[in-house]
Design a protein that fits this description.
- By secondary structure, the protein is mainly α.
- The protein has two domains: 125 residues, no CATH class; 130 residues, no CATH class.
- It contains ten helices and no strands.
- This is TIGR02587 family membrane protein.
């Protein structure tokens, strides 16, 4: 039930977004299947660092990942049905597509539910460098997923000049670094000793922004935003989407 609550909290903004309804209808099915498969791999990584239990066994982590995916599907279907967005008379292709798309953020919410909605027993080892990259990947994917389907994101990219795009890149990296190390948020990390700024900036902040950019480009491709689009606009859309993705990466470092 805690996982179900987390799924609802993470997914309901997208359930009430019209672009997400249409995605479930027209999204390329091979890209959707790949997206679901990669989401399951991400859930496996999250299970190790922020799952339901303090488990460090591949079998247990895999079971938790599948459980989160299942809860995500149930929560997405329940919310879509409650709002009348799926129901009798709808074709199976559209119905399954809508539930599948909405289940991705719901499953991430289900996996994060223990840490955020329950008691943290403190029995987990601090995430390794690889683990923190996984957490940043999950955070970047979640916030990018919230923005990528909207038309406003494309409109912003069309209106921006190249020099504004370059400024946005610098701002994204600066905000990611400041959120994690400089603004005294709860969960903020301390800079290590000698060379701490350099190691944290290039090893985490720049690397985190690189993850955000790759996630943004992948999400744009998955949603068909790059199809038939000139490279310059694709680059600008990636930069625009990279800003919320970078915020998501920073948020994941702070709260998980």
């Amino acid at each position: 039930m805690r996982a179900f609550g987390g799924a609802i909290l993470f997914a309901f903004p997208l359930v009430m977004t019209m672009e997400m309804w249409w995605l479930g209808f027209y999204m390329d099915r091979l890209r959707l299947l790949l997206f679901l498969a990669l989401n399951l791999v991400l859930l496996l990584g999250l299970s190790y660092y922020a799952g339901f239990r303090t488990a460090f066994d591949l079998k247990e982590d895999a079971l938790d990942a599948f459980a989160a995916a299942g809860v995500g599907v149930l929560a997405a279907a329940a919310m879509l049905a409650a709002f009348g967005l799926i129901g009798p008379g709808m074709g199976w292709d559209e119905l399954l597509g809508k539930v599948a798309v909405q289940s991705v953020p719901a499953s991430v919410g289900a996996m994060a539910a223990r840490r955020q909605l329950g008691d943290d027993d403190g029995g987990e080892a601090p995430p390794s460098y690889q683990g923190q990259l996984v957490l940043m990947l999950a955070g970047a994917l979640f916030l990018a997923f919230n923005v990528a389907p909207t038309e406003e994101m494309v409109l912003i990219a069309l209106q921006m000049e190249p020099w504004q795009g370059m400024l946005l890149v610098g701002l994204s990296v600066a905000v990611l670094h400041a959120f994690v190390y400089s603004l005294d948020f709860s969960g903020q990390e301390r800079l290590p000793g000698d060379g701490g700024f350099r190691r944290s900036f290039f090893g985490f902040s720049v690397a985190g922004y690189g993850i955000a950019v790759l996630v943004s480009l992948y999400v744009l491709w998955t949603f068909g935003r790059t199809d038939g689009t000139e490279p310059g606009l694709v680059a600008m859309m990636t930069v625009v989407l990279g800003f919320p993705a970078a915020l998501g990466a920073a948020l994941a470092r702070l709260v998980v």
